[in-house]
């Protein structure tokens, strides 16, 4: 059945084409498996709560009749601003408008939130842009530049809120600077979500072609209920396609954790157990609650434009398993820098089991893709990432990392292939079991051999993390991160960032997070397989457990072959089949014209005669702990015979993501 919605209809109807509903949520109350909800252009200021699930063979589809013509927003217009002082105006809102969730009382807070401030989940928007919240009215009136903003010149637009408890009103002050609020579109968020079911297991929903913006979402740590402007809420088989998603206070799209009894933000509320322990608990509780491949995950996000959100573009913990994130443009995430914590990135997934990230363009984010805990069967392929670092003029937050990809405390296999990584730091690798194949890498590696454990009370507190039955969610075991078990085949490394002259004098292992040196030389202390396996006395019939303990808890081996190094990038000391060119003039320049990106480089003149081998799943072996191959989610092997554009590599195989030098000048996005 087709159900019609038109906010501009003369009056609310019954959902027929002749008499459409005025609200999408009216359609959501009656739509059942196989139905299609067709939404006419217009602004829908409402929260849509889908009530009924679809089926795999009969989805419920919500479709914007005109692509991006239907707008679902969690904001309301504010037109009654009164001048307060200078360029600062004030308005009052009756708290009954907010129902049981007042975003001007609810603060952004929870586990893994580190920012020393009291930001609220609500926000003021002028012409679709967020203003900067202040902790005091005086700061709002002053309107000073916020030095950590990626756009300092805009950070002078401020707002502040307080409560009038006697009148039950929210008071909002806004410093409009040179803008006249009477002549601008001024909105405030009043709803927590835009399109997200309250119940779990509302599966097989398609959301197609909508503009979804401005919601008072909450901080989404891994061991807590995770919401977004759009959210699947612990269900299976959602498709979110061709949508424009922007303006979330925290997360744009959520495939995250459900609310676990006695475990939501346990550390933040009770303090007595570490947040890391609660993450382990979250995994085990989910197993008990029926977290399986058959119940949750297998979502698709494709061809979406996701931007200007302040925690993540897409977030997920466990509910994101077996998903595909493809062909999306994700940018300007956490650029205001008022939120700070360990859950910020263009995409932030915990337990990205068999998740594929492919053909995405991710830039100007505080971190591009972050796969944290249980990245197993994860593949990051054919993506284009750049400028995922703050501008040089910006004072960085001490609690923030900036790189294209971060793989953290997982056991693999995590496969990163055919990507273009142009930020100063390409991969933060506080993990093991990573394979990088045919990438263009212009940034450094960080946290090699570190970043997983803490020294507390003069003793090491290891971070045990789970690994799983291959291609399933069921836990196979827990183990610390030994580091290593990494593979680097047929990549191009370029020292594209200039290193300060005094850098090497000051650098030491304690400062490794600041590493600016590009290349695989940072693995020089790691064994190759032949040396590692000798430690285990395989010819001895009765092994000595005590004698082998140092090997059992030592670094795992690395495999490094067929890479090319330019402009000072450092090569692994025991890599035989490599190309090293120290010409400092070899560089990669990113060119942007009318929104289209390409690269300008001379490196192919130097690499074209360096021939490497074709790489297959069999070349890469198995990740050590789960004993799982670097393969497709269905268990079939991969042959890396296609380049970034999908061209076949042919008989003459060169390192990097391009089959030949001609395609390197093509439009990347």
Q: What is the gist of this entry?
A:
The protein is 9% helix and 30% strand. It has 669 residues and is mainly β.
Task: Please report the number of helical segments.
Answer: 9
Please give the CATH architecture of the domain at 75-189: Sandwich
Strand line-up in the sheet with most strands: 1-2-4-15-18-21-24-27-30-33-36-43-45
**How would you classify the helix and strand content by structural class?**
mainly beta
* Shape summary: globular
Write down how many β-strands occur, each being a DSSP E stretch of 2 or more residues: 51
| Portion in helices | under 10%
> Any idea of the CATH class of the domain at 75-189?
Mainly Beta
Distance between the termini: 38 Å
Topology (SSEs and partners):
Elements: E1 2-5, H1 24-30, E2 36-39, E3 42-45, E4 60-64, E5 70-73, E6 75-77, E7 82-85, E8 88-94, E9 124-126, E10 129-130, E11 132-133, H2 137-142, E12 158-164, E13 169-175, E14 186-189, E15 205-208, E16 211-215, E17 230-231, E18 239-241, E19 244-248, E20 251-254, H3 266-270, H4 275-288, E21 300-302, E22 305-309, E23 312-317, E24 324-326, E25 329-333, E26 345-350, E27 356-358, E28 361-365, E29 369-372, E30 378-381, E31 384-386, E32 405-408, E33 414-417, E34 420-421, E35 425-430, E36 434-437, E37 440-441, E38 444-446, E39 454-456, E40 459-461, E41 465-468, E42 475-479, E43 486-489, E44 492-494, H5 503-506, H6 529-534, H7 545-552, E45 558-561, E46 564-566, E47 579-581, E48 588-593, E49 596-601, H8 604-607, H9 617-620, E50 622-623, E51 628-629
Parallel strand pairs: 1-2, 2-4, 3-5, 4-15, 5-16, 11-12, 15-18, 16-19, 17-20, 18-21, 19-22, 20-23, 21-24, 22-25, 23-26, 24-27, 25-28, 26-29, 27-30, 28-31, 29-32, 30-33, 31-34, 32-35, 33-36, 34-37, 35-38, 36-43, 37-44, 43-45, 44-46, 46-47
Antiparallel strand pairs: 6-14, 7-8, 8-13, 9-10, 9-14, 12-13, 39-40, 41-42, 48-49, 50-51
């Amino acid at each position: 059945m087709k159900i019609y919605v038109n906010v501009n209809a003369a009056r609310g109807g019954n959902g027929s084409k002749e008499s459409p509903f005025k609200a999408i949520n009216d359609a959501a109350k009656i739509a059942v498996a196989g139905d299609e909800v067709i939404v006419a252009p217009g602004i829908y200021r409402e929260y849509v709560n889908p009530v009924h699930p679809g089926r795999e063979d009969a989805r419920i589809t919500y479709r914007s009749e005109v692509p991006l013509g239907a707008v679902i927003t969690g904001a309301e217009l504010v037109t009654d601003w009164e001048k307060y002082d200078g360029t600062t105006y004030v308005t009052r809102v009756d708290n009954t408008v907010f129902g049981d969730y007042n975003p001007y009382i609810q603060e952004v807070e929870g586990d893994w939130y580190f920012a020393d401030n009291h930001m609220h989940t609500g926000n003021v928007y002028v012409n679709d842009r967020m203003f900067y919240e202040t902790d005091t009215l005086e700061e709002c009136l002053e309107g000073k530049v916020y030095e950590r903003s990626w756009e300092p010149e805009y950070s002078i637009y401020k707002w502040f809120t307080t409560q009038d408890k006697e009148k039950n009103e929210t008071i909002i002050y806004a410093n409009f600077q040179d803008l006249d609020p009477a002549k601008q579109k001024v909105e405030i968020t009043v709803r927590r979500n835009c399109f997200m079911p309250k119940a779990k297991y509302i599966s097989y929903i398609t959301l197609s072609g909508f503009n979804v913006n401005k919601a008072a979402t909450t901080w989404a740590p891994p061991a807590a209920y995770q919401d977004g402007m759009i959210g699947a809420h612990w269900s299976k088989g959602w498709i979110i396609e061709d949508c424009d998603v922007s303006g979330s206070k925290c997360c744009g799209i959520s495939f995250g954790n459900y609310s676990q009894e006695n475990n939501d933000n346990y550390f933040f509320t009770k303090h007595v157990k570490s947040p890391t322990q609660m993450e382990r608990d979250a995994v085990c509780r989910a197993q008990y609650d029926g977290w399986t491949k058959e119940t949750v995950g297998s979502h698709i996000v494709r061809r979406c434009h996701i931007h200007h959100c302040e925690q993540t573009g897409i977030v997920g913990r466990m509910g994101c398993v077996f998903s595909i994130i493809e062909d999306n443009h994700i940018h300007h995430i956490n650029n205001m820098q008022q939120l700070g914590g360990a859950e910020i990135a263009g995409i932030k997934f915990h337990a990205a089991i068999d998740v594929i990230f492919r053909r995405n363009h991710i830039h100007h984010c505080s971190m591009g893709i972050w796969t944290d805990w249980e990245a197993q069967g994860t593949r990051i392929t054919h993506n284009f990432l750049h400028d995922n670092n703050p501008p040089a003029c910006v004072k960085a937050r001490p609690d923030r990392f900036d790189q294209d990809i971060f793989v953290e405390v997982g056991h693999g296999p995590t496969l990163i292939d055919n990507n273009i990584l142009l930020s100063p730091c390409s991969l933060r690798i506080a993990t093991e079991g990573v394979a990088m194949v045919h990438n263009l890498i212009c940034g450094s590696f960080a946290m090699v051999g570190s970043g997983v454990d803490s020294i507390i009370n003069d003793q090491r507190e290891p971070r045990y993390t789970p690994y799983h039955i291959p291609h399933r969610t069921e836990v196979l075991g827990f183990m610390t991160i030994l580091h290593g078990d990494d593979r680097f085949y047929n990549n191009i490394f370029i020292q594209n960032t200039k290193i300060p002259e005094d850098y090497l004098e000051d650098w030491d292992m304690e400062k490794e997070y600041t590493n600016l040196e590009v290349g695989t030389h940072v693995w020089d202390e790691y064994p190759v397989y032949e040396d590692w396996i000798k430690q285990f006395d395989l010819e001895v019939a009765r092994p000595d457990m005590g004698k082998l303990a140092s090997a059992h808890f030592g670094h795992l081996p690395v495999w490094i072959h067929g890479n090319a190094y330019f402009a000072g990038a450092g090569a692994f000391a025991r890599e035989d089949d490599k190309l090293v060119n120290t010409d400092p003039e070899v560089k990669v320049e990113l060119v942007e014209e009318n929104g289209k990106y390409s690269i300008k480089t001379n490196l192919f003149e130097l690499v074209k005669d360096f021939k490497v081998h074709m790489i297959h799943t069999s070349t890469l072996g198995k990740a050590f702990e789960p004993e799982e191959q670097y393969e497709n989610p269905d268990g079939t092997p991969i042959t890396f015979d296609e380049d970034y554009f999908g061209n076949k590599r042919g008989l003459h195989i060169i390192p990097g993501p391009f089959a030949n030098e001609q395609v390197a000048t093509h439009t990347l996005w």
